[in-house]
Amino acid sequence: MRWFWRATILALSLAYRIADAGYFDCSVIYDEYEDLMGNQFLLEPDRYVATLPQQISRSDHERLQKGIFQLHADRADRGIAVFRTNGNLHGKFLFKWTDPLPDQPPHLLIDYGVVYGRVADGDAPLFFVPLRLKPGAGVDLDVGRAMALDDGGPAVGDSVQPQLDIIYRTDEQTGEPILQAVNNASVHFPIESLCHRPQRAVEDVPTR
After folding, report:
1. Which residues pair with 97 in a beta bridge?
2. For 66, 138, 144, 204, which has the most beta carbons within 10 A of its beta carbon?
3. Dihedral angle computed from the Cα positions of residues 9, 13, 16 and 21, in that order, rounded to the nearest 10 degrees
4. Residues whose CB is less than 8 angstroms from the CB of residue 144 and which lie 6 or more positions away in sequence, other chains included
C-alpha cells in the first residue's frame, strides 16, 4: 500500500502545482491583463508565472516580455508590471519604451495603470493617466504621479524621494535604460503568459 499512497500524494502534488500555476484556456479571453490579472495574481504574481523581480531593462523587455502576452492589438507590444507600493497598495500597469531619440535615451511610456484601495475585491480603483518618463524621473504609484528626481538620476542604492515607488534610470556603465523599484516597493515583471504552459528555458532568464 505504501507505493499507492506515494503515487497518490505525488499526483495530488502535481495537480496542486498545475492549478497553482494558473494556466488558462484563453480561447475566449481577449486581453489577459484586463481579464486574468486580478486580486490573487496581483498579490502573488510569481506564484503563477515566472517574473523578473524589482527591475527590468529595455533589452530584457524586448527579449523576455514583448509580444508574449495575449493583449488587445493596440497594446500587443507592451510589457506588464505588477506592484505593491511602499504604502502597501497593489496594482498593475502596462509600459513600453519609445523608439531611440536623437542623442538621448528613449522615453518610457506607462499607461493603463491601476492601483486598488483594497486588492482582494478590487475596491476603490485609481486609474492612472498615461505617463511619459525621461531618465531621471520616478513615479509615486500610490497616486499615479510622475516627478523628477532631485539629482537627475541617482545610482543604485542612492536615496530618492520617499514617496516614489519606481524610477527610470540609465545604467552608468552601459547606458542601458532600466525601470526599477525603490523605497521598499515591490515590482514583478511577468515573463510568461497566463495563457500557456511555460516553455522558456531557465538559462534565458537573466540573473541579478
Report:
1. 108
2. 138
3. -170
4. 113, 115, 126, 127, 128, 129, 131
Angle at 150 between CA 100 and CA 154, to 5 degrees: 60
* pLDDT above 70 coverage of the chain, percent: 78
pLDDT digits 0-9 by tens, 116-172? 988 877 788 999 999 999 999 999 999 999 999 864 444 444 578 999 999 999 998
Q: What CA–CA distance (Å, rounded) separates 129 from 150?
A: 23
Are 139 and 166 in contact by the 8 Å Cβ rule? The answer is yes
Phi, psi at 201, each rounded to 5°? -70, 145
Residue partners of 164: CB distance under 8 A and separation at least 6: 138, 139, 140, 147, 149, 182, 183
| pTM of the full structure | 0.80
